[in-house]
Write a structure and sequence with these properties.
The chain is α+β, with helices and mostly antiparallel strands and 493 residues long. It is 43% helix and 20% strand.
Length: 493
């Protein structure tokens, strides 16, 4: 109600100049209102008190969704991922740019509804020409130089940052992870390895930037919420809220005739995005007449960013380990899932999901960043159980289930191809199919994927052995030994 009292004080001063005020109250040492003037100002105060909240009362109310993580765990998880991101991403190493982003970011944070949580916000410039930005849980924000360069003014850059900060306030990252865990036991390992999100085991055991794969995979609903809250933050921070819609229109223009900007690839584009932003601006009462659009500081920082040397970004298949992993050990450790047991080299790590069947096994440096911030298996074995119907002894049922599993993998791996058609075999006495495939390797070149599938009461069990084509022969005997050790447990009840 501070605005009401400021306005009322201005009215009183104006009235004083017109001679409507009585003499000073000597006992108080300050002027006092005459009865008529006092009644008039009180009436004005009441009217303003009724009118002023209208715009804010109409704004869309947004609250964080269901989340099994605590805000403190958001901070811890985000800090771990941000530390690894700082090692893997080509940062700008431009103190003036980072200082500017921090100043601008904290101005927005001051209007961000965090529910009383004190997040340790950090802001970093990434030397990447791609138009993108992301914020990890806990408030660790990374802004690509491409987003700064493409912004026409400070308000548009503030819009990008307000959008990302809204993901933090609404806790979308760990909300997505929570829903994934509830639905699939923290994401199937199959999607983890083949170019998808990071599973629960990778979150807890790798603690790497690759964990961002799941933390940054938002739904269209989450994107829309971040648009709306970001618009509110812009408005409350004194910026022209139309900048949010303008930036998205700029991104849409970039899509014509070529691949969409990375921002739209990483942030699913909600329907009627610009219209929803404009609708929220109307709810807020329209564009304030004194809304800020640009600043000399932004123009100076943009010039500095444009002058930075360009760091060539590794493309898909170029984000791998610096050197190959150590050879597989000849000694084996045992692993027991709810539906099977197997043995794997004891110098490999295991990453098992909470559903009791999905797991992956990889040597040190066997799981790498694929060049887009997502975890990918370059060397090792993945086991996945997916839903499938049919008699385990019916070869056609197995063939159909295997075809569907391969088709699902190819959806997220368009360059994956079958190099040798499925062949019948036995795995622990169970009818099975063995299929050879090729795919882009996250360490460059091509990889060989040997996929063994078998039907069990719990579904289709897939064992996928992965290694770069040039190194596959060195792992062939190890893969054979692992598969020879597989034993299926009793039928699930």
């Amino acid at each position: 109600m501070a605005i009401v009292w400021v306005i009322a004080e201005a009215v009183v001063r104006a009235s004083s100049r017109k001679g409507n005020l009585r003499l000073k109250d000597e006992s108080q040492g300050r002027p006092r209102l005459g009865a008529r003037a006092a009644r008039g100002c009180i009436g004005l105060l009441c009217l303003l008190a009724l009118l002023m909240p209208v715009a804010s009362a109409q704004r869309t109310v947004l609250r964080p969704g269901w989340n099994m993580f605590t805000p403190q765990q958001d901070i811890e998880l985000g800090k771990r991922a941000a530390g690894d991101a700082a090692k893997q991403l080509p940062l700008c190493h431009a103190p003036k740019v980072d200082a500017y982003l921090t100043q601008l970011g904290m101005r927005l944070v001051a209007k961000l509804p965090t529910g009383g949580v004190q997040y340790p916000f950090e802001f970093h410039c990434v030397n990447d020409k791609a138009i993108n930005a992301f914020a990890l849980p806990g408030g660790y924000v990374f802004v690509n130089r491409g987003a700064i360069e493409v912004a026409d003014n400070e308000a548009q850059l503030a819009a990008v940052m307000a959008h990302e900060l809204s993901h933090v306030a609404l806790r979308h990252g760990t909300n997505q992870a929570t829903k994934a865990q509830a639905a699939e036991g923290f994401l199937g390992i199959a999607s983890t390895i083949f170019g998808g999100s990071t599973g629960g085991a990778l979150l807890s055991e790798l603690g790497a930037f690759a964990a961002g794969g799941v933390l940054l995979r938002y739904s269209r609903s989450a994107e829309s919420q971040a648009d709306v809250m970001g618009t509110q933050v812009l408005y409350d921070s004194g910026y022209d809220p139309r900048a949010m819609a303008q930036f998205f229109e700029k991104l849409e223009a970039e899509t014509k005739g070529k691949n969409p900007p990375e921002f739209l690839s990483d942030h699913p584009n909600p329907e009627h995005r610009v219209e929803r932003v404009n609708e929220e601006i109307d709810k807020l009462g329209g564009v304030p007449p004194s809304a800020k659009r640009d600043s000399a500081e932004f123009e100076a920082v943009k010039r500095e960013v444009l002058a930075l040397p360009v760091v060539k970004r590794p493309g898909p298949g170029a984000g791998g380990a610096a050197k190959p992993p150590a050879p597989p050990s000849g000694n084996f450790a045992a692993y027991q899932a709810s539906g099977y047991t197997l043995k794997y080299p004891d110098n490999w790590k295991k990453y098992s999901d909470s559903n009791g069947n999905d797991a992956s096994f990889a040597p040190e440096a066997g799981v790498v960043d694929d060049g887009t911030g997502h975890a990918a298996l370059a060397y090792g074995l993945i086991v996945n159980v997916s839903q499938a119907n049919g008699d385990p002894n019916d070869s056609y049922a197995l063939e159909h289930a295997t075809e569907q599993a391969i088709h699902d993998l190819q959806k997220s791996n368009p360059n994956m191809k079958i190099t040798r058609q499925p062949e019948r075999m036995r795995l622990n006495g169970q009818p099975s199919l063995a299929t050879y495939l090729s795919n882009d390797s996250p360490v460059g070149g091509q990889e060989t994927d040997w996929m063994i599938t078998t039907l069990r009461p719990e579904g289709l069990v897939s064992f996928v052995c992965v290694a770069p084509q040039a190194a596959y022969e060195k792992y062939d005997k190890t893969f054979d030994a692992i598969l020879d050790s597989v034993r299926f447990t009793k039928k699930s009840q």
